[in-house]
Amino acid sequence: MEPFAEPPLLTEPVTAPDHSPERCDRRETPADDAPSAAIFGTVLCLSAAFFYAGANVALRMLADPSRATDPMWTICVKETVTVLVVGPLLLLQYLRGRASLPSRRSLWILLAAGAAVQLIGNVGLLWAMGIVGLAIALPVALAVSLISAALLGTFFLKEALTWRVMLGIGLLIAGIVCLRAGAGGGLKGINTPAGMVIVAILVACLAGVTYGLLTIAIRHVARRDTSVWIVVLVVTGCGMVLLGFFSWARFGIARLAATPGEHLFWMGVSGFLNLLGFVALTKGLQWTPVARANILTASQVALAALAGWILFQENVNPPVLMGFALTLAALFCTDRG
Fold first, then answer.
1. Contacts of 203 (CB under 8 A, 6+ apart)
2. What's the structural domain count of the chain?
3. Of the residues 65, 117, 246, 332, which has the maximum number of CB atoms within 10 A of its CB?
4. Is residue 154 included in any domain, yes or no?
5. What domain range is 38 assigned to?
6. How far is CA 192 from CA 1, 87, 175, 195, 196, in A?
7. Is position 134 within any domain?
8. pLDDT tens digits along 257-273
């Protein structure tokens, strides 16, 4: 989820010249090694899809009404995992002179986009999962993220708006209509008002918009002076600090410290798997064309949907299947645009 949350899908490799701890550009490989490199890249991208899907399954467990963990506190703990791993590594790189700090302008852009993703995107998507389920909320958010990134790119990055993007918008709208029809009263066994189901789907759409905004912010700052790992640290740091503060203000230290161990375990698992997914995708992009990498990584949508239907008995009926297919088509269509 977190694109990033950092966007779950990267639309292009993000890199900064000479000072990134891990470069994301594709490596030149000898012709004899090309087949093995392609296989290795494919395995890494598919691994990223499994890691991302696993992270979202862990979040879905926490969003389940039987647990109903607070979304802000859940995302705070999840993002803290990445901060604790990436922060010390970046500090070490900086002390060795192998990493540099971003400009003030780039930092403010990342802080603004990161705050929006954490407060609106990640928290909102987790809440929506508890209303309509993983199989509906995640595909909608990812498709909207790609479409919104393409639309925002025309305004902020002066990129061309292709016919594939316009087709993707139409497919997504049709898919959302079908998903709403199939969602019924939300999760099985819970009588959720119809209006709340609509709100949950709209919140998932809004989460996708924030992910698209973050994608544009990343592409903007990466063209200047910012390492991809700096981006990861700033965005997850926003989640840890902002959501941690709001959680403390709402519940107090004592209540947060009383969080059940099982809940903390799944929060940590989600953060760890999300980090592994990002690392796998970053390395996979060194040997895999971006378009192919995104298609492989997008399989997380199907994996997460299957998990929702099998593990959590979420609604699966003809309208949901049709909506899922249309949303997936919108995702692939836009991704290739």
1. 124, 125, 127, 128
2. 1
3. 117
4. yes
5. 31-335
6. 25, 41, 21, 8, 7
7. yes
8. 999 999 999 999 999 99
